[in-house]
Amino acid sequence: MVPLSWYLVLSAVLFTLGAVGLFVKRNIISIFMCIELMLNAVNLSLVAFSSFLKHLDGQLFVFMVMVVAAAEAGVGLALIISVFRNRESVDIDKLNLLKM
Amino acid sequence: MMTLLLQTSVLDINYVAIWPMIILSISGIAVLLFGIAKDPVHRDMSMIGIVGFVLAGVATGRLWLPVKTVGQIRAFSNMVIIDHFSLYFFFIFIIIGLLTLLISASFLEAERLPVGEFYSLVMFAVVGMMLMAAAGHLVMIFLGLEIASISTYALAGYRRNDLRSNESAIKYFVLGSAATAFLLYGMALIYGATGSAELEGIRTAIIDNVNAATKQPVHTELLFLGAAMMLVGFSFKVSAVPFHLWTPDVYEGAPSSVTAFMATASKAAAFAAFLRVFVFCFVPGYGQGLHSAWTTSLETIAILTMIAGNIAALTQHNFKRMLAYSSIAHAGYALVGLIADDWQAVAFYLLTYSITNIGAFGLITYLAGRGDRETEIDDLAGLGFNNLGVSIAMLILLLSLAGIPLTAGFMGKFIVFKAAWQKGFHVAVIVAVVTSAVSVYYYLRPMVIMFFRELKVEPKRLPLPTGVLVTVVLSILGTFYLGVMPGRLFQAMENAKVSFVQSR
Amino acid sequence: MNGQEILSYVPILMMFLVSLAIATGMVVSSSLFGQKVKSREKLMPYECGKDPVGSARERFSVKFYMVALMFILFDIEAIFFVPWAVVFRKMAEVYSKAFVFLEMLVFIAVLLVGYIYVWKKGILDWK
């Protein structure tokens, strides 16, 4: 039996990788994948908790997160495509029309 | 697993409780389908949208009295809690949604953008916000937040061929999703620590210090970590410093009417969920100092937000960007109410702020003209000479945002600051008062430019569209009503104080 | 693992067998009864007309993306059928079976609206 903490550590590591990638990556698609990684790291935590607590709400949560992630992917990729059509580039550094 | 599932209570399906959301969803779908008809008539779609919002408002109003007698209505196995708190926020969202439709009609027509999708996205976003305000379960907060956010991402990028709109949408999308991920991680950890994802269950687990599922003591480290993560996520959503960097860019690039919607309704919704989780669940005196931990960190965040927002607003040249920083500062003021554990003050503040801001942005959509371009403050030069009515309206709304007495802004700030002062947050209140005084400068600058600077080129502005006119008139009336006689409304809210924390 | 527990996996085994049978049946029947067109495009590895040889770093038509996205969205919605199916009996004890079934029909109707929207917007139109 794998203890709960292992799952939690793995999930935290994945989440951190995603969060770091978010700041390091320059390609919008990669950034988008980092966000998906973060969401799925959370899913892992939720499933682990759900199994540990013998409580089903965590599983329900994961269902919702998966569906929402798909919807987010739909809108996000559509936005990326519209940026690419206008600029021929998906580099986040080139999105500098509005000053930071 | 199987047996576990069967033990859970049977869904108490109660459509009456979610009638406002159902009405809005159906009318949103109707508008969407109308929009893909052969020759969609703009007027018809506006009509469906307006009727949808009005009916949703009526449905919300009809829930007020039943809630008054029972205290709160719970539906769908505690997923949805309808109490006066949620009904109050429903009203804010419905009013803002309706006014957003009104101010965007002429803009959509001028830009030849598809109308049906815009209206339905606004309506779906409002449904999401309502779910956030009425959430009784972490899943519901997450779902509501995402319904609202995803619709707003699409709205921010609504001008598909405009580079600024694209950029705004991408930035909003990336940072918004990252914030959601943080929030979600916080939810997962809190779920693990307390053994319940229901807000009521979390609250009881923290008060009794018993994990609801394992019957062990609550795991404090996980709880704190989860609360911190949720704090980060919500701070992003309400654009509090240091998580505010997206706000100016997104607000500047998005179409003005969408900015109006984001700056008011989205912010109010984030605050509603913030209040639900932090004020309702993380109660004082329990959870090994969880309450004092979050109030202290939020106090710091609020002080930073007020200072940074107001100071950055001083140096802006773009009107929308200035209002974006102003909205950051206003989030700081609302946070001052939040740390005082006083939802009435925060909700009242958000109402005053939203009512005022939607009018100001309504005027911006008009003044920005073709292509939503003329949003520099200097573009207002000479407006006082050639359009006195608009400039006086703008003057009133900006004074209300600055918090001058007799306006809604003053009343909102007064109530929030009073609540926080009584709870002993003296530093935060002093900073708030000082920064409000500073803010008068940047709110008055557009005035000076409007009335005292010569007009360079005669701008070709169309007559004020009816939708914008109605919005601005309503917004000004609301500003004065809330500023001069907020007594009745506040009394109604005071009576509702109990229902928020009432346990079943 | 005792015998009782192993028995409880029999439905899963049956599901595998049935899906295997359906898949085999479809392939076999289409190769038996289907009409065969042997044009150049049909015999290519990717029937959509993409050239399998050559640079992989070229731009695709946005239509592929559209269809893929529609597939993801409609595919993931099916996830909600599972919990509904699990609680169906339990809920039918409290509410009527027809009501619980109707609830799912409402969900499907909402999906259908999305489908109609996609259709009318011409996303499925490849001309």
Describe the structure.
Chain A is built from three helices and no strands. Chain A is an all-alpha fold. Chain A has a domain at 27-88: Helix Hairpins (Orthogonal Bundle). The N and C termini of chain A lie far apart (49 Å). In chain A, 36% of the residues are buried. The model of chain A has no long low-confidence stretch (mean pLDDT 90). Chain B is an all-alpha fold. Chain B has one domain. Chain B has helices at 2-7, 19-35, 42-70, 84-111, 115-133, 138-156, 163-194, 199-208, 220-237, 246-253, 256-281, 290-314, 319-339, 343-367, 383-386, 388-402, 408-422, 426-452, 466-484, 487-495, 497-501; strands at residues 73-75, 80-82. In chain B, strands 1-2 form a two-stranded antiparallel sheet. In chain B, strand 1 and strand 2 form a beta hairpin. In chain B, helix 6 (138-156) packs antiparallel against helix 7 (163-194), helix 12 (290-314) packs antiparallel against helix 13 (319-339) and helix 12 (290-314) packs parallel to helix 18. The two termini of chain B are 27 Å apart. In chain C, helix 4 packs antiparallel against helix 5 (97-120). Chain C is extended, with a radius of gyration of 22 Å. In chain C, 65% of the residues lie in helices and 0% in strands. Chain C has five helices and no strands. The mean pLDDT of chain C is 84. Chain C folds into two domains: 3-43; 62-121. Classes of the chains: A mainly alpha (100), B mainly alpha (504), C mainly alpha (127).
Q: Helix content range of the residues of chain B, please?
A: over 70%
Question: What best-fitting shape of chain B do the alpha-carbon axes yield?
Answer: globular
Model regions low in confidence, pLDDT < 50 over at least 5 residues of chain C? none
Mean pLDDT of chain B: 89
The sequence of SSEs of chain B as H and E is HHHEEHHHHHHHHHHHHHHHHHH
Radius of gyration of chain B: 22 Å
| Intertermini distance of chain C | 58 Å
| Biggest sheet character of chain C | none
**Major interchain interface with per-chain residue totals:** A-B, 45 and 51 residues
Beta-strand residue fraction of chain C:
under 5%
Task: List the keywords.
B: 504 residues, mainly alpha, globular, disordered N terminus, C: 127 residues, 5 helices, 0% strand, extended
Please specify the SSE layout and strand pairing:
The complex is a heterotrimer of chains A (100), B (504) and C (127).
Chain A: H1 4-24, H2 28-53, H3 57-87
Helix pairs in contact in A: 1-2, 2-3
Chain B: H1 2-7, H2 19-35, H3 42-70, E1 73-75, E2 80-82, H4 84-111, H5 115-133, H6 138-156, H7 163-194, H8 199-208, H9 220-237, H10 246-253, H11 256-281, H12 290-314, H13 319-339, H14 343-367, H15 383-386, H16 388-402, H17 408-422, H18 426-452, H19 466-484, H20 487-495, H21 497-501
Antiparallel strand pairs in B: 1-2
Chain C: H1 3-7, H2 10-33, H3 62-77, H4 81-94, H5 97-120
